[in-house]
Design brief:
Helices cover about 35% and strands about 25% of the residues. Helix 5 packs across helix 6, helix 5 runs antiparallel to helix 7 and helix 7 packs across helix 8. The chain is α/β, with parallel strands linked by helices and about 375 residues long. The longest helix has 27 residues.
Length: about 375
């Protein structure tokens, strides 16, 4: 229904299915992370290339967002207002996302001759059997994947459900910041949409390639293994950029806030930082990502990946791709979601070099403007 072949879809927050024929009006993609908010707004040029109109990051205090839940609503809403002002955009429509852990997804098979209304009723009936709580408490959406490979005359439908309060929290947050929430997506789906452009640049346009996408967050790293735009495996690994921040603070007896700032900027740290702190962290990171891949190999028929893509804030660390490749033995590159896009002249190259890997999910959400 909502762009399934591209591997993305989401809830329209007005009425189910009202995105059919939706014009690509200006749209903000806002990613609500555990320690930062990220915003991206895109346009499409006459030559077909995408252009970055606005992007910005706003930090948040620890504990404002916990496991994807908004614990400090007023503080996060004010941070979102600051983010919009910092970006300098006038656009009000926004796409947000829920963490994958907040959403139940299932594939079902329904008769292919159903019209739109009949399909919606059939999905609701099937969902009632699959979801462990009342449909009255659920925000439900679906998309038709294509003809069923196992049942002639049927189509495969991907169904997603989340508790209404989870969606309402995102909706209320946007409205409190003066925005108009029109789409609620799922973070892993938005990440895959943004990563698709990088995968298509691989050999044979990425066809049949098994790609490991790692999003290195603050406290943990999320793995999605993707083949032909479909996620075939996922796992969280307990390592993130906080570990490096803590190592810097211990090694040089400085507050965590100062350590985080100097880590991000890459300046102001002692000369022995690359050897004494950074490289040991990168080695550990590579080992942990390799361990995550081993879990994938032991639980699936696969025994290798064709490529590793690194994203998230810590993917901008110097030498990270080389360290991961050395530990895993697989070709590795850093995913820049803005690669190949036209960039605004006011965007500082130095700022972009530090921040670009953090914008994966926000870019995927912004790309929803052009999904059909």
């Amino acid at each position: 229904m909502l762009g399934c072949p591209a591997g993305i879809w989401g809830w329209d927050l007005i009425t189910l299915g009202s995105l059919f024929g939706r014009e690509p009006a200006p749209l903000l993609g806002v990613d609500i992370g555990s320690t930062t908010l990220k915003l991206v707004e895109l346009d499409r040029l006459r030559d077909g290339r995408y252009a970055v109109l606005h992007c910005a990051i706003e930090p948040m205090d620890k504990g404002w967002i916990v496991d994807g839940n908004i614990e400090k609503f007023d503080e996060v809403a004010e941070a979102l207002r600051r983010l919009v002002r910092k970006a300098g955009t006038k656009t009000k429509d926004v796409a947000l996302a829920l963490p994958g852990s907040a959403v139940i997804t299932r594939k079902i098979h329904v008769p292919g001759e159903l019209n739109e209304d009949e399909l919606e009723l059939q999905v609701e009936a099937e969902a009632a059997q699959l979801i462990p709580f009342p449909l009255s408490d659920v925000a439900l959406d679906f998309c038709v994947v294509g003809p069923s490979s196992s049942a002639q005359g049927y189509v495969e439908v991907l169904v997603a459900a989340a508790r209404k309060e989870k969606v309402s929290d995102r909706q209320g947050l946007a409205e409190a910041a003066g925005l108009n929430p029109v789409i609620c997506d799922i973070e892993p789906y938005a990440a895959r949409l943004a990563a698709r452009r990088a995968i298509e640049r691989l050999s044979n346009a990425g066809a049949n390639a098994v790609v490991a996408l790692f999003e290195i967050g603050s406290a943990s790293t999320a793995l999605q293994v993707i083949r032909n735009e479909e996620m075939i495996y996922e796992r969280d690994q307990p390592i993130g950029g906080q570990m490096l921040t803590q190592a810097i603070a211990r090694q040089y007896a400085m507050p965590l806030e100062e350590a985080e700032l100097k880590k991000k900027n890459g300046i102001g740290l002692p000369a022995d930082y690359p050897q004494q702190v950074l490289q040991p962290f990168l080695d550990t990171l590579g080992q942990e990502l390799g361990r995550a891949l081993q879990f994938f190999f032991t639980s699936t028929p696969h025994n290798k990946v064709d490529h590793i893509l690194l994203s998230g804030g810590s993917a901008s660390l110097p030498g990270v791709a080389q360290a991961v490749m050395a530990q895993t033995g697989f070709p590795t590159s850093v995913l820049n979601p803005f690669d190949g896009m036209a960039l605004p002249p006011q965007l500082s190259p130095a700022r972009l070099a530090v921040e670009q890997t953090s914008y994966l999910v926000a870019t995927g959400l912004a790309l929803r403007r052009f999904a059909s």
